[in-house]
Amino acid sequence: MSDIRRQKSEVRVGIIGTGFIGRVHARAIRQAGARLVGVAAADAEAAAEGARLLGADRAFGSAEELIESGSVDVVHVCTPNHLHAPLALKALDAGLAVVCEKPLAIDAATATLMAERAAETGLVATVPFVYRFHAMVREARARLAEIGRVSLIQGSYLQDWLLESSDSNWRVDPALGGPGRTVGDIGSHWCDLAEFVTGERIAKVCAQTAVVVSNRAGARVLTEDIATVQFATASGALGSLTVSQVSPGRKNRLFLEISGTTGSLAFDQENPEQLWFGARTGSRALVRDPLTLSESARAYSPLPAGHPQGFHDCFDAFVADTYAAVRGEHRDGLPTFAHGARAAVITDAVLESARTDRWVTC
Ligand code: SOE
C-alpha cells in the first residue's frame, strides 16, 4: 500500500523539472498545503539550484532516485515531453500518484497505455488542463442547457512567443518535444476545453499545418508553427480551430465560442473574468461574481467580484483538486490521464490528416 493511503494528513510531493511550469507547480503545491519534499532535474547541479529556487526540502540526484526514495506520495512530471511517459509510468509502478504535464506522451498509443496503466493501479493520475478551472469556464458548462442544441464550436489558441527565428525552445526539437508541437502544446488545451464544456466528442478532423519560421537557431524546423482544423462531433455539430505560436501580439489567447440553437457562449482566456452569453436579442457579458454564479462555478471563485483571478488560481485549484482526489474525495471535472490520452488521440489525428490530406477519425 502506498504511503498516501496510510498518511492522510500531509501530502508529500516531488517535482521533476524546474523550468517555468515547474515553478508554477511548486507554488500550487504549497498553496494546497502539501509539502514539497524534493526536486529532481537534468543533473544534480540543476536539481540543487531548482530545490533552492522552488523552496524544496532537498534535491535528488536523478528522477529515478526521487521516485524510488519512499519519501514522496505524489510526483509532478514537468520535464520536456519525451520524458513524460517513462517517468510517469515509473512513478505509477512505484505506487505514486502522478501529475504529468501535457502532452501526456509524444504519441497517442503511449498516452493511451499510460491512461490504461493509471486505471489499473487505481492511483490518481492527472494532467494540467488548467483552463478548465476558470470559474467562467465552469459557468459556461453549467449554462450549456440554456443555449439549446450545440450546432457550432469554433475558436483559436494563438501565441507569438516563437515568432522570430531567434526564438527557440526544446519544444521545437522533435527528439524532445515530439513529432508535432503547436497542436499538442496548445491545441490540446483547446480540444480538451471544447469537449469539457460542451460534452461533445470530436469525431473526425480535417487539418492543415505549416512551418512559418523555417530555421531557428541555425537548425531546420520540422514541427508546425500553425494549424487549422475543421471537425465534426459525434452528435453532428461542426467546428473549427486555429492554433498558432507565431501570431504577432497574441500572447496566450485561447478563445472558444459555442453556438447553440437558442444562444451562444464565448470565453476568452485572456479576459477570464467574463463569459459572453449571446442571444438573438439581449446578448450580455456575464461577470464572475460569487453572488450570481452557478454552484459549480462558485467553487472556483474564491475571490469576490472585481478582484481578478487568473492563471495561478486555475493551477492552484487544479492541484488542490488532484490532492483532494488523492485523499479519496471526488472532484468534478478533474482532468485525468484518460483526458490526456484523449487529447493525444486528437493531436495524432490532426497531424495525420495534415500529412495525408484527408479526414481522420478520432
Ligand atoms: C507554451 O506554449 C505554454 O506554456 C504551454 O506549454 C502551456 O500549456 C500553456 O498553458 C501556455 O503556453
Describe, in short, the structure shown:
This protein has helices spanning 3-6, 20-31, 44-54, 63-68, 84-93, 108-121, 135-142, 174-177, 182-198, 295-298, 311-326, 337-356; strands spanning 12-16, 35-40, 58-59, 74-77, 97-100, 125-126, 150-158, 202-210, 215-216, 219-220, 226-233, 238-244, 253-260, 264-268, 274-278, 284-287, 360-361. The protein is of the alpha/beta class and 362 residues long. Helix 6 runs antiparallel to helix 12 and helix 7 crosses helix 9 (182-198).
Tell me how many strands there are: 17
- Counting helices, strands and paired strands, the structural category is alpha/beta
Oligomeric grouping of the chains: single chain
Order of helical and strand elements: HEHEHEHEHEHEHEHHEEEEEEEEEHHHE
Mean pLDDT: 96
Strand order of the largest sheet: 16-15-14-13-7-12-11-8-17
The CATH class of the largest domain is Alpha Beta
Number of domains: 2
Query: Major beta sheet, specifics?
Result: 9 strands, mixed
Structure description:
With 362 residues, the protein is of the alpha/beta class. The protein folds into 2 domains: 12-130, Rossmann fold (3-Layer(aba) Sandwich), CATH 3.40.50.720; 133-303 and 336-361, Dihydrodipicolinate Reductase, domain 2 (2-Layer Sandwich), CATH 3.30.360. The chain has helices at residues 3-6, 20-31, 44-54, 63-68, 84-93, 108-121, 135-142, 174-177, 182-198, 295-298, 311-326, 337-356; strands at 12-16, 35-40, 58-59, 74-77, 97-100, 125-126, 150-158, 202-210, 215-216, 219-220, 226-233, 238-244, 253-260, 264-268, 274-278, 284-287, 360-361. Strands 16-15-14-13-7-12-11-8-17 form a 9-stranded mixed β-sheet. Strand 14 (264-268) and strand 15 (274-278) form a beta hairpin. Helix 2 (20-31) crosses helix 11. It is globular. The model is unreliable at 1-7 (pLDDT under 50). Bound molecules: alpha-L-sorbopyranose. Alpha-L-sorbopyranose is lined by residues 159, 185-186, 189, 252.
